[in-house]
Amino acid sequence: MSSPELIVDVLRAELRAANLTYKTLAERIDMSESSVKRMFGQKDMPLSRLAQICQAAGIALEDVLRQAADARPRPDALTLPQETSLVAKPRLLLVAICCLGYWSMEQIVDTYRLTPAECVGCLAELDRLGIIDLRPLNRYTLRVSNAFHWLPDGPVQHYFREQIVPDYFAGRFDGPGETLMCLPARLSPGSAAELAHKIHQLAGELTRLHRKDRRLPADEREGMTLLVGLRSWEFKAFTALRR
User: Fold this and answer.
1) H-helix or E-strand containing 32?
2) How many other C-beta atoms can be found within 10 angstroms of the C-beta atom of residue 51?
3) Which residue, 142, 93, 92, is CA-closest to 120?
4) What is the DSSP string of 129-168?
5) b/e sequence 118-151, b meaning 16+ C-beta within 10 Å
6) pLDDT tens digits for 78-130?
7) Are 36 and 25 in contact (CB under 8 A)?
8) In sequence order, what DSSP letters do the residues of 60-112 get, joined into one string?
9) How far apart are alpha carbons 170 and 183 in whole angstroms?
10) What are the residue boundaries of the HTH cro/C1-type domain, all occurrences included (predicted)?
11) Partner of 98 for a Cys bridge, out of 46, 57, 103, 122, CB 3.0 to 4.6 A?
12) DSSP string over 48-67
């Protein structure tokens, strides 16, 4: 489904939620009801008309556009060449991770030792790689879905294991909202699959909260990282004690 069709579908859903009929809308924008129905049936309208309808209905245009963007089919993961390009340039990987967190260019430059020109260069490269769509004024939209994950055992995961995991676990995990658990259990394959499914649901909940908090001021949000793993494993020192 193309973007114009998605936008019109989202707008129609918003009108239903507001209990606003085509007849009432037609009266508010000075059109005939049949013309309004035809416009929605064709699923195409100029931006000026879209803005007019949103204003008449009391709907925020930016919310309609954001919902349409979120509904557009997007991949859940990058390709192997895309990930390889990211890990080859740590600064590019940094900016990519910031983009996944919906940081603005200004936030990135204020936080890290990157000049505006360097940051724009990274954003442009991410656009060429097909990871973001770079917009005017150095704004962007992600070209990956909200269920995004790194490739299993891919270049980024290898990089994380070698460079990031030791640093991550060096923390005390005793700050506000922090926790660390390592829980052993003996499970059947069916129970392990059930638990893995619940882990995916937890990841979905993290995504939901991440999206919800995007509208809060930057100083009211803290960078958090959820690291979850489930595998058949025994500590090597324990394995050495087996009979």
Assistant:
1) none
2) 13
3) 92
4) TTSEEE-GGG-EEESS-TT--PPTTSHHHHHIIIIIHHHH
5) ebbebbebbeebebbebeeebebbbbbeeebebe
6) 999 999 999 999 999 999 999 998 899 999 999 999 999 999 999 999 999 99
7) yes
8) -HHHHHHHHHHHS---SS--HHHHHHHHT-HHHHHHHHHHHTT--HHHHHHHS
9) 19
10) 10-64
11) 103
12) HHHHHHHHHHT--HHHHHHH
Residues in the chain predicted with pLDDT less than 70, given as ranges, are 1-2, 70-72
CA distance 101 to 216: 13
Which one, of 93, 209, 77, lies nearest residue 143 by Cα? 77
Residue with tokens 């990841």: 203
Closest to 47 measured CA to CA, from 4, 1, 12: 4
What span, in angstroms and rounded, lies between the C-alpha atoms of 78 and 100? Answer: 12
Name the helix (H) or strand (E) containing 35: helix 33-42
Q: DSSP per residue over 9-26, as a string?
A: HHHHHHHHHTT--HHHHH
Separation CA 65–CA 103 (nearest Å): 19
| Beta strands 132-134; 140-142: pairing state | antiparallel
Q: Region of 68 please: left (phi>0), alpha (psi -120 to 50) or beta.
A: alpha
